[in-house]
Amino acid sequence: MKMITIETPLVSECSATECAYNLGKNCHARAITIGDGAHPSCDTFFSNRNHTKAAMWAAGIGACKVVTCQFNDDFECITENIRVGRSKDEISCLTFAAR
Ligand code: SF4
Ligand code: SF4
Known about the structure:
By secondary structure, this protein is mainly beta. It has one domain (10-93). Helix content is 0%, strand content 33%. The protein is built from no helices and nine strands. The protein is globular. The protein starts with 9 loop residues before the first strand and ends in a 6-residue tail after the last strand. 30% of the residues are buried. It binds iron/sulfur cluster (2 copies). Residues 11, 14, 16, 19, 21-22, 27, 29, 32, 42, 44-45, 59, 84, 91 line the site of one iron/sulfur cluster.
């Protein structure tokens, strides 16, 4: 497998404990995608009773499609870290801030 090294913001906390990538309120996907084009929902969210064993890394943000957020630059997140959790009926980026 070829490996790449990139710098991304981190997911510092996620309260969606039902997600397969969540262990102890931390996300352990390699990188998540935020946004469906309109809302800052976590596009990587996957409700499952089985959970990842990959507790050795913290998740980065691979892409964000929410161009209305002030932390979005060229479809990427440029803040240091984000928090994810329930907002209304969605699992969303709680760091979203409208321009
Ligand atoms: S940030 Fe998204 S993918 Fe990661 S644990 Fe939370 S809901 Fe799941
Ligand atoms: S802070 Fe803004 S740009 Fe970063 S992931 Fe959340 S919605 Fe996207």
